[in-house]
């Protein structure tokens, strides 16, 4: 038997979620296209009436983004420069109409290798908050997305929020995002890069976080490159530090958009470019 239910609080939603065959709906921009010509089956739980799942709050220790927050709302929010890459990624999610409906939580749960929101959130060392009728837990985003369309979300859980620690947002942080596609708008990425840099008091790189998407089943941090950037002067030429060896762990595929070889070469050029742009912002 099919049912469409709009609970008004999280307790009601998690109770419904515990039922076998339940499915979550919020923005719906991935949910309905995935059905094709089929009809929805099971219990559909629409989260849009649960106020606590929509919006952004800034606390002393963390910044909390409700899972049902639309990309349009996130883009318009007065967040620190460390979130500029995430906002830039949001502007690349489909069209304006899609951004008005699509949610940041849906972007993560859909777990596409080309999900625009994942690299910037990895560069922010974000966590996800997961709720069930029995408990609440947190996972690092890097542990939440397991593969192409696969996550660690249990069948009785709801993604309720994305959490960014305040230490990633404070200080002289600068962030930048760029993607390569066949055209500028309404495009699935061939490669994309998010960079978050922190400039130290001496003008050198105090911290660096770099993530590449659409070049592996799961977006990946370039940890070796991050380590190599530490202590180097924050300047436009900083991007030249990136070398092919830093991208060795990526596993780009051949598909209708590009070959794996092209993706790898493009990702290296994007990494160099985005690091350089981010360095300019950090030194301004």
Helix and strand arrangement:
Blueprint: E1 3-5, H1 10-17, E2 23-25, H2 31-35, E3 43-46, E4 56-58, E5 62-66, H3 71-76, H4 84-90, H5 96-101, H6 104-110, H7 118-123, E6 127-131, E7 136-140, H8 141-144, E8 145-147, E9 150-151, E10 158-165, H9 166-169, E11 173-180, E12 191-199, E13 205-213, E14 220-221, H10 223-229, H11 260-283
Parallel strand pairs: 1-3, 2-3
Antiparallel strand pairs: 4-5, 5-10, 6-7, 6-10, 8-9, 11-12, 12-13, 13-14
Notes on the protein architecture:
The chain is 30% helix and 24% strand. A hairpin with a 5-residue loop joins strand 12 and strand 13. The protein has 2 domains: 52-167, Uridine Diphospho-n-acetylenolpyruvylglucosamine Reductase, domain 3 (2-Layer Sandwich), CATH 3.30.465; 171-283, CO dehydrogenase flavoprotein, C-terminal domain (Enolase-like, domain 1, 2-Layer Sandwich). Strands 4-5-10-6-7 form a 5-stranded antiparallel β-sheet. Strands 11-12-13-14 form a 4-stranded antiparallel β-sheet. It has 11 helices and 14 strands. It is globular and about 60 Å long. The chain starts with a strand and ends with a helix. With 284 residues, it is of the alpha+beta class.
């Amino acid at each position: 038997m099919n049912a469409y239910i709009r609970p008004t609080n999280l307790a009601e939603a998690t109770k419904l979620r515990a039922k076998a065959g339940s499915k979550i709906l919020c923005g719906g921009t991935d949910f309905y296209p995935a059905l094709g010509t089929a009809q929805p089956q099971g219990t559909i739980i629409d989260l849009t009436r649960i106020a606590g799942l929509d919006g952004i709050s800034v606390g002393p220790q963390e910044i909390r983004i409700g899972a049902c927050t639309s990309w349009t709302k996130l883009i318009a929010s007065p967040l620190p420069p460390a979130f500029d890459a995430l906002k830039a990624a949001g502007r690349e999610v489909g069209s304006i109409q899609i951004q008005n409906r699509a949610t940041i939580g849906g972007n993560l749960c859909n777990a596409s290798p080309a999900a625009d929101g994942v690299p910037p959130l990895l560069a922010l060392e974000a966590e996800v908050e997961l709720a069930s009728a029995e408990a609440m837990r947190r996972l690092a985003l890097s542990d939440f997305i397991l593969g192409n369309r696969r996550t660690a979300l249990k069948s009785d859980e709801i993604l309720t929020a994305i959490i960014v620690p305040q230490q990633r947002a404070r200080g002289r942080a600068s962030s930048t995002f760029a993607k390569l596609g066949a055209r500028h708008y309404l495009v699935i990425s061939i490669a994309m890069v998010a960079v978050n840099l922190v400039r130290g008091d001496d003008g050198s790189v105090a911290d660096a976080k770099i993530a590449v998407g659409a070049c592996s089943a799961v977006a990946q941090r370039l940890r070796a490159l991050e380590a190599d950037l530490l202590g180097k002067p924050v300047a436009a030429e900083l991007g030249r530090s990136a070398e092919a060896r830093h991208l060795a762990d990526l596993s780009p595929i051949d598909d209708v958009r590009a070959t794996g070889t092209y993706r790898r070469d493009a990702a290296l050029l994007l990494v160099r470019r985005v690091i350089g742009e981010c360095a300019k912002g950090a030194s301004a």
